Amino acid sequence: MTNLATEVLVVIPTYDEAGTIEWVVAEVRAALPAADVLVVDDSSPDGTGDLADQLASNDRAVHVLHRADKQGLGAAYRAGFGWGIDRGYEILAQLDADGSHPPGYLPELVSALTGGPPPAAANDAVGLALGSRWVPGGTVVDWPRHREVLSRGGSTYARLALGTAVRDVTSGYRAYRRGTLEEIGLDDVESRGYCFQIDMLRRVLAAGHGVAEVPVRFVQRSHGESKMSVPIVAEALWRVTRWGAERQLHGVRTRLGRG
Description:
The chain is of the alpha/beta class and 259 residues long. It has helices at 21-31, 48-58, 73-86, 106-114, 145-162, 178-183, 195-206, 230-258; strands spanning 8-14, 36-41, 62-66, 91-94, 126-132, 139-141, 174-177, 210-215, 217-219. The chain has a single domain, classed as Spore Coat Polysaccharide Biosynthesis Protein SpsA, Chain A. The chain contains eight helices and nine strands. It has a seven-stranded mixed β-sheet with strand order 3-2-1-4-7-5-8, sandwiched between helices. The chain has a two-stranded parallel sheet with strand order 6-9. Helix 2 (48-58) links the parallel strand 2 and strand 3. The N and C termini lie far apart (46 Å).
């Protein structure tokens, strides 16, 4: 099997992350020195895009994609993945720019896709590796109790709606195979906020690709403000409920057809 380390792109969407972007990019470069980094900035008013440009001017492995306005997390990832697919990267990883996803886990996510060293426990059928807070060995640090309850509850609800055994369906710390992204209809994904993560997972599963969960330590952000909002939560609740209802209806139709 070929070494894909030099064919990895790490996509980092940003909006007002000037306090952390330099540290995050430096940590990503240290964790995967042979990988490239793409910062996707939505015209951050705090100058995050300018800082990213400075990083890119000093490091050929760092690239910046500037977008005209704030279009949502899902659109940023679609743009970043499309940029990477067009340039032939074989693995496209993603992580938050606020420091909550320690970049040191990136080699483990890549290994889970390539069949590398433990904790890979994976094979070529795996199309998505995700950093999981809710599997043995995974944890969260400095989270308020109410936020952990909300996150666990939301993940459980989505798991039941989708009918999946994946434990952390909302994790935004991931790595995909290029072929998986090409197969699942990336351009058709309409989810804008954090629901994008659930939408992508359900598409990966529907396409028959395996999912590997790598235990990670999720850290509460130390700079900036959370982008979570009532509209984002409402979108996730509405879409997940709809997907669950569609799955149940499909099951009923299948049973009636067989009868």
